[in-house]
Amino acid sequence: MNGIILFGHFHRGPIMTSPATVALDVGRSALKVSYRETSTGRLCQNLIPSAVIPAFKITDATEAERAAKDTVTVHGQPYFVGTTALMQARESDNALTDEWVYSNEYLALLTHGLNQSGAQNPLLMLGLPSRAARLHRQKLKDHVIEHFGLDAKVMPQPMGIYYSHMLNDIGVPTPGRVLSRESWAAVDVGRYSTDLILILDGVWIEQVSESCAGVVTAVDHLRRSLRDDGVELDFTEAEAALRTKSLRWYGKQRDISPLVDKAIEHLTNDITSTVTRLLSDYVRKLDGVLVGGGGAQFVADAFRARWPHVVIPEDIRFAVAEGMRRSGEAHIRAQLKKRSA
Ligand SMILES: Nc1ncnc2c1ncn2[C@@H]1O[C@H](COP(=O)(O)OP(=O)(O)OP(=O)(O)O)[C@@H](O)[C@H]1O
Ligand SMILES: [Mg+2]
User: Does residue 274 sit in helix, strand or coil?
Assistant: First the structure.
């Protein structure tokens, strides 16, 4: 049997065989991969910048060797992905549309993440923005199954955050948790979109799924206000400035906190008004509101001020991938149990 992982309750290590799970949270800023190394059972997380460009010949030997490791082929076309693509491309150009998931670039990222995991015949766990998940969950699943010949499950991205909170690292509910008796909202603040889902008594309420502004909104706001001050920043610089609140300006650090605070307020208002509108009938009855994704750091304070039961996962950026992996392990365990019954 391929992709054997062993694990159990009393050992950190193995007692039961099961195929591997590889969770691929393909975001517009980065691909987050979460998996258990097949040979050791060790948990691994890789972050790969979401940059993909058609490959070309690199003449420098050292650079060419590095680029070879970051090259994958999709439908006969070789692509540079990750760090190599980021360095070789002049401007990264990830189309910000829902259709992106059917592109060769998207498949190139999945292939690279999968190759890095080294897993044989794994179950693939994938996420989609909440609104897209309602519309094309099945279509993406079929597309990926056809391309890789592997089993796949697709869920709305915030569902990963939910599972990262509810399940332990082998996919078993954490002590005291009964999924069917708990109700949660989960919010994933990403670069392209912020996504929300509602789970009532363990059931995903599809009608209350929504996607709204992502961190890109704050980046654009900051770039516009800096431009009014005569400062032109590219996207990457402006996104970094959101976190540092300063920029390097002719050899000096320049404090831009007031402009960053305004840009973040703009993003936060958009997200909190969407969440308020969608959850108005539910929020006070929920066990909590989970807020993850790399952008959670920007909105956490505003969320906490409004909703006292906000829960921020420990590793905000990997919460989606890690939760999807845990859910995959739970799914495999349930299947094995069914088969042996
Ligand atoms: N260490 C970091 N390096 C770069 N960006 C970071 C970092 N930590 C947080 N961020 C910020 O978090 C944002 C969202 O990150 P995340 O990885 O969750 O987005 P994504 O999954 O790529 O986007 P989406 O889900 O919308 O497609 C980034 O746009 C960036 O502004
Ligand atoms: Mg994301």
Answer: helix
Neighbours of ion ligand 2 (CB under 5 A): 27, 190
Q: What is the pTM of this model?
A: 0.92
List pLDDT tens digits, range 172-207: 999 989 999 999 999 999 998 999 999 999 999 999
Residue 195 CA to ligand 2 centre (angstroms): 9
**Comparing 16-25, 112-121, 197-206, 304-313, which segment has the lowest mean pLDDT?**
16-25
Please give the helix or strand (H or E) that residue 220 lies within, else none.
helix 215-228
Mutate to test the pocket of ligand 1, among 25, 26, 28, 29 (most ligand atoms within 8 A of CB): 29
Cα of first residue to Cα of last residue in the chain, in angstroms, is: 20
Per-residue model confidence as pLDDT tens digits over 33-51: 999 988 888 999 999 999 9
The residue whose CA is least distant from atom 9 of ligand 1 is 294
11: number of Cβ within 10 Å: 10
In CATH, which of 2.30.30.100, 3.60.110.10, 3.30.420.40, 1.20.120.1200 is domain 21-214+268-340? 3.30.420.40
Give the domain ranges of the chain. Answer: 21-214+268-340
Centroid of ligand 2 to alpha carbon of 321 (angstroms) = 9
Which residue's CA lies nearest to atom 10 of ligand 1? Answer: 294
Report the C-alpha gap between 151 and 300 in whole angstroms: 36
